[in-house]
Amino acid sequence: xxxxxxxxxxxxxxxxxxxxxxxxxxxxxxxxxxxxxxxxxxxxxxxxxxxxxxxxxxxxxxxxxxxxxxxxxxxxxxxxxxxxxxxxxxxxxxxxxxxxxxxxxxxxxxxxxxxxxxxxxxxxxxxxxxxxxxxxxxxxxxxxxxxxxxxxxxxxxxxxxxxxxxxxxxxxxxxxxxxxxxxxxxxxxxxxxxxxxxxxxxxxxxxxxxxxxxxxxxxxxxxxxxxxxxxxxxxxxxxxxxxxxxxxxxxxxxxxxxxxxxxxxxxxxxxxxxxxxxxxxxxxxxxxxxxxxxxxxxxxxxxxxxxxxxxxxxxxxxx
Length: 319
Ligand code: MG
Known about the structure:
- By secondary structure, the chain is an alpha/beta fold.
- Helices cover 39% and strands 17% of the residues.
- The protein contains eleven helices and ten strands.
C-alpha cells in the first residue's frame, strides 16, 4: 500500500493540474486602472517563456508537446505564440497556412493546459501591413474569442515611430476588427521604440474597455530609467504587460545581468506585471533557453539548458 501511494498521488496531481489551471481559477482577464485583474476582481500576474519567431529558429517548438512540457516542468502559466510576419526568411505573408498552423498549435495547447496565451503579431513594421493584421486578428477573434485563455498582442515592437500618429491609428483598426467578433478579451498594444515608450501610450490611451500596453526590457541594457517610464505610465492609470523580456542585452546576446534581472523582478512583483521571457530556441545566442546542439522539443534536462534556460526555469518554478 505504501508503495502505491506516490503513484496515486502523482495521478491525482496530474488530473487536477489539467482540469483546474490558472485560467479556470481566474477567468477572463481585464484591465482595471493600472492592474490586470481576473473575473474575481483581484490582480492576476502570470508568467512564461516566449516562443521565438515562428518562421525562424522557433519553428520546431510550435507543438503541443513543447507547451505540455513547459507547463509540467517549468510551471508556466502563460504562453506566447510569436507569429513571424515577414522579416528575414519566408514568414506569414509568404506562407500564411504554414505559419497560421504553428500559432494555432500553441494556442490550442495552451487552452488544453488551461494557461493564458498571447497571440503575438511579431513584427517591427505592422503599420505598413495593416490589412494583413486586420484579417489575421479578425480570424483569431472568430476562432478563439470565446476562450478566456486568449490575449491578443497586436504589435510586438514598433520602432522609432509616433504613438499618436502611427501606432495608435494602426491599433484602432485592428482592435475594431477584433471587437466585431470578440467584445471582451484583453488586447495588448505595442509601444514605440521597441515597446519601451509606454509613457507615450499612457498620455494618449486607446478608448477601449479592455486594453493594456506592452513594456519590453532586456536587463543588460535597460535599467532604472525604463522602470521610471513604466511607473509614469502606471501613474497615468494604464495597465502594462511585459510580453517579452531578456536577461541579457537588447540584441538577445551577451552575459546574463543577474543584478539587473533581480531589480526588474522586484519591480514586476510590486506592480503585479505578467511576463514572458525570450526565448524558446536553440539559436546560438545567450537568450536562447536551449544549447545549440539540443534538438529535443521537450523533456529537456538541466544539461540541455543554457545558463539563461536554467535561470528562467528556476525563476518560473519559484526556486
Ligand atoms: Mg471573448
